[in-house]
Design goal:
Largest sheet: 8 strands, mixed
Oligomer: single chain
Structural class: alpha+beta
CATH class: Alpha Beta
Distance between the termini: 15 Å
CATH topology: Nucleoside Triphosphate Pyrophosphohydrolase
Shape: globular
Number of domains: 1
Amino acid sequence: MPDLPDPDEAASATPVEPVVPREAATVMLLRDTPDGIEVFLQRRVAAMKFAAGMTVFPGGGVDERDADASIAWAGPSAATWAEWFGCDEPLARALVCAAVRETFEESGVLLAGAGPDETVTDTSRYADARAALVGRQLSLAAFLAESGLTLRADLLRPWANWVTPEQESRRYDTRFFVAALPSGQTADGETTEASSSGWRRPADAMADGTAGRSMLMPPTWAMLEDLAECATVADVLATERTPVPKVMPTLHVDGDTVLVQL
């Protein structure tokens, strides 16, 4: 079972009025192996303010600059993503851009190319830009423009939308995407937000959680269950998930137990 909040913390942290959730995007980066699908996971450092020590997919909050309409874009339009996620076009654009930016910042995988039909194969040349993006000295729009790159929205697929329970003091409205690891690229763990990173079969990642070798939040657990049902990355990418429903669990404290109800 996935790890749940401490009951005392869950009870004491309940705000008088629900905190407005911050928009966020996370990407389940996938690859095929002889033993089945693997997904890239990272264990967040213990000092993080949110999900400390949890095993998660690369992702994070939307930067207001992610909505920049000047970004060269290939694939489904912002209007189409807005229909899929049930939001307005500026937010849809920002979510897709945040997904691309966060994936690059946290794993070094860049879902972009020199044109609408091309994908970067060697991202090492963009190491300085990656560091500048992490430090917020550079926006995604500026990075892509300076590098002559086009964002490849067609390499992403919408998968899920989970909102942190209203009882929590730090909340996110997170859209989950899936994407295949581009040919020639390598995912790394070169981020200060993770203590370890690596590829795991979804079933093995859930087994780690059950055995206490890792901590998984309910949304992560649910995504791993979904992925475990697919035999190949192509199967995942071909799965129809639109329009994406919004899921917001509630927490119920019963003595020493915290129950998550969908």
